[in-house]
């Protein structure tokens, strides 16, 4: 920041808190400067601090949690449409944090609006930071080829800047943001005017080479080598073509283990980089409930087995005043698991003023090899809409239909939802209808066989200004959700009455009572040898959650649910302990346990989880995830060493191991070592 260039740029110094002292100026002097050249945008922060020794510095691992450290963030609404944008951020340890926004970003922690926030998007950019007796500073360089923007000689962008002072749990913004929102609320962004940049097309080529050795017990040992390449070309500043050959995802971290105690489908999020670019554009439906396109259906079996992806292409971005997305992926066959298939997705979305939009989608699966039993071609047709009402209201909905051979009858689905999210109130109401034969094979449904679902919610925020007992906010609320099958049988009902108490130091206490209804039309084997008879079960349970101040080096979270469960009782606990050692090391150990007592039989399920992360530098790190499940009686290990260059490319060394015990039925041993190197050619 001693560069004479920056001294000639006038700083913006007006920052307003939304937490803890809403409406007051930032407690510490804050400056931000913005400039640009023909090639890049530059953003510089000077963050003065009267107590520099109290600055909280956490690990610099890419896309870490900036709410757990002193940090800065800024958002760019490059189309100035209040719906699409990019977020960049860092902390004093020079963490690289970036995300892509769609559907208005939402920016709310409690509303039903569900804006698109894609943290797994990784752009090519740089940041440098400095700690000193004045506080700390950060300088960003964002190449224009990294972001998308209109082809105009002079442009106005939406922009906002945020500073977090973690010891006070303080968030302050250049353009004021309501207490119910955060930096991703694009509708509250300010204006960055007079941006003049030329059309900049560029080509990025990312080849990879991979080697793997493994040992699977009776199946023997194996070794293999492979290579592939991804290509990204900016046809215009707003429209991008992506090509992939022999796609591989060996560097992706392992999924977290889950144990289900109901009859319904588990949701695992997409983590593979190729599918995350512009992922929000392809999202249609209700998140984690009914998704018309779910990319994990491509290249992964229902049991998580990897199905080879031969090649793929995606065209996405803005064209002729609308957002368009075209994708085609071709998978190879996996004997006994899946036939070779082609997957095509076509998406168009027209954005309208005040967070509104209209869109349509077509998803097609075509089995190109010899179909296995149960495999069929499949198509999904859908349309969706959003209507922003005033500053806080939003109505969303979709309609969809599927076409599957040998499936006739009710193959449609639709939803209508409304939300209102003001500083004081958060309200939501939604209805979802899924036909019995609705079958989006390249999508996700949380419950098969069709259903009707009602959800409603009301939350009141009380921001306490007198500071009594260190309290910040009370959030009493209730929610209700119910499911009926196509014949009007009530499968489940859940009434939740709760209050969240939050202190200024970030500690929280949640106290809730739940009234639960579960309906079974046929016996349900909830655990091996434990079968619950058909019937309707009404129970009551108490739920407690507590967390301590996470700005300290040691923090703790605890969730407990105690009460009735089907025909008996359950005690469910999930404690976790987090240790932060300076800006290098973070560890977290947790347990998810259900202790169930039923007339039909007693059982206990446990998942233990240990995460370790050590960052030698922002680009050199070691991560480990160890998980134990007593249901399958195995310990899984995933250890990753990464030496990164740009946009998460570089060297990855990955070790995977499953250690089975007496109750484990899989191969023993089951371990592999993978080395993968990717290099980014930015042409």
| Tally of helical segments | 3
CATH class of the domain at 4-195: Mainly Beta
CATH fold assignment of the domain at 4-195? Immunoglobulin-like
What is the approximate shape?
globular
Average the pLDDT over all residues and give the rounded result.
91
> Between the first and last Cα atoms, what is the distance in angstroms?
29 Å
SS strand fraction = over 45%
User: Helix- and strand-based class?
Assistant: mainly beta
Query: Which architecture of the domain at 4-195 would the CATH scheme give at its second level?
Result: Sandwich
Structure explained in plain terms:
With 683 residues, the chain is an all-beta fold. The protein has a domain at 4-195: Immunoglobulin-like. 2% of the residues lie in helices and 56% in strands. The chain contains 3 helices and 44 strands. The strands form 5 sheets. The chain has a 27-stranded antiparallel β-sheet that branches. Strands 1, 4, 5, 6, 7, 10, 11 and 12 form an 8-stranded antiparallel β-sheet that branches. A 4-stranded antiparallel β-sheet has the order 2-3-9-8, with no helix packed on it. It is globular, with a radius of gyration of 26 Å. The model is unreliable at 107-115 (pLDDT under 50).
């Amino acid at each position: 920041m001693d560069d004479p260039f920056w001294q000639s740029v006038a700083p913006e110094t007006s920052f307003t808190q939304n937490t803890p002292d809403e409406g007051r100026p930032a407690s510490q002097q804050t400056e931000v400067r913005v400039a640009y050249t023909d090639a890049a945008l530059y953003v510089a922060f000077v963050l003065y601090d009267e107590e520099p020794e109290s600055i909280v510095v956490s690990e610099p691992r890419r896309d870490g949690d900036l709410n757990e450290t002193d940090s800065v963030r800024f958002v760019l609404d490059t189309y100035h449409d209040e719906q699409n944008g990019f977020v960049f951020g860092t902390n004093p340890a020079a963490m690289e944090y970036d995300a892509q926004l769609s559907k208005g970003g939402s920016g709310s922690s409690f509303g039903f609006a569900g804006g698109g926030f894609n943290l797994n998007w990784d752009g090519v950019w740089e940041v440098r930071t400095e700690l000193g007796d004045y506080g700390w500073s950060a300088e960003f360089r964002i190449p224009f080829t990294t972001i998308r923007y209109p082809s105009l000689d002079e442009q106005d962008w939406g922009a906002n800047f945020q500073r977090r002072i973690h010891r006070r749990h303080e968030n302050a913004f250049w353009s004021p943001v309501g207490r119910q929102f955060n930096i991703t609320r694009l509708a509250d962004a300010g204006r960055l005017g007079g941006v003049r940049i030329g059309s900049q097309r560029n080509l990025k080529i990312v080849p990879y080479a991979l080697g793997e050795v493994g040992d699977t017990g009776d199946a023997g040992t194996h070794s293999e080598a492979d290579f592939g390449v991804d290509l990204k070309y900016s046809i215009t500043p707003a429209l991008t073509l992506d090509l992939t050959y022999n796609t591989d995802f060996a560097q992706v971290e392992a999924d977290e283990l889950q144990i289900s105690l109901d009859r319904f489908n588990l949701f695992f999020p997409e983590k593979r980089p190729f599918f995350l670019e512009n992922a929000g554009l392809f999202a249609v439906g209700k998140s984690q409930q009914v998704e018309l396109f779910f990319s994990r259906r491509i290249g992964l079996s229902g049991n998580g087995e990897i199905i080879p992806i031969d090649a793929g292409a995606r065209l996405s971005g803005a064209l002729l005043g609308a957002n368009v997305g075209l994708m085609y992926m071709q998978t190879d066959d996996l004997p006994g698991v899946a036939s070779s298939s082609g997957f095509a997705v076509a998406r168009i979305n027209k954005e309208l003023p005040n967070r509104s939009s209209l869109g349509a989608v077509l998803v097609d699966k075509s089995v190109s090899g010899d179909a296995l039993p149960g495999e069929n071609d499949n198509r999904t047709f859908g349309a969706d809409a959003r209507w922003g009402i005033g500053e806080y209201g939003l109505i969303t909905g979709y309609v969809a239909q599927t076409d599957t051979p040998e499936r006739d009858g009710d193959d449609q689905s639709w939803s209508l939802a409304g939300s209102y999210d003001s500083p004081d109130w958060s309200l939501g109401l939604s209805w979802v209808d899924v036909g019995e034969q609705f079958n989006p094979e390249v999508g996700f449904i949380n419950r098969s066989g069709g259903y009707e679902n009602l959800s409603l919610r009301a939350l009141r925020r009380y921001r306490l200004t007198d500071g009594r007992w260190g309290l910040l906010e009370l959030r009493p609320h209730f929610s209700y959700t119910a499911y009926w099958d196509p014949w009007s049988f009530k499968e489940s009902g859940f009434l939740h009455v709760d209050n969240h108490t939050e202190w200024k130091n970030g500690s929280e206490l949640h106290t809730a009572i739940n009234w639960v209804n579960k309906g079974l039309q046929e016996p349900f084997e909830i655990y091996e040898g434990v079968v619950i008879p058909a019937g309707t079960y009404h129970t009551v349970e108490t739920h407690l959650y507590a967390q301590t101040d996470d700005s300290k080096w040691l923090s703790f979270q605890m969730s407990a649910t105690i009460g009735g469960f089907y025909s008996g009782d359950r005690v469910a606990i999930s404690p976790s302990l987090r240790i932060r050692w300076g800006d290098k090391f973070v560890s977290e150990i947790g347990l998810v346990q259900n202790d169930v007592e039923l007339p039909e039989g007693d059982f206990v399920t446990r998942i233990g989880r240990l995460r370790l992360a050590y960052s030698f530098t922002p680009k050199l790190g070691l991560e480990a995830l160890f998980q134990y499940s007593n249901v399958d009686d195995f310990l899984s290990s995933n250890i990753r060493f990464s030496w990164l260059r740009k946009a998460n490319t570089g060297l990855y060394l990955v070790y995977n191991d499953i250690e089975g015990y007496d109750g484990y039925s899989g191969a023993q041993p089951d371990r592999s070592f993978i080395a993968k190197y990717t290099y980014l050619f930015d042409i």
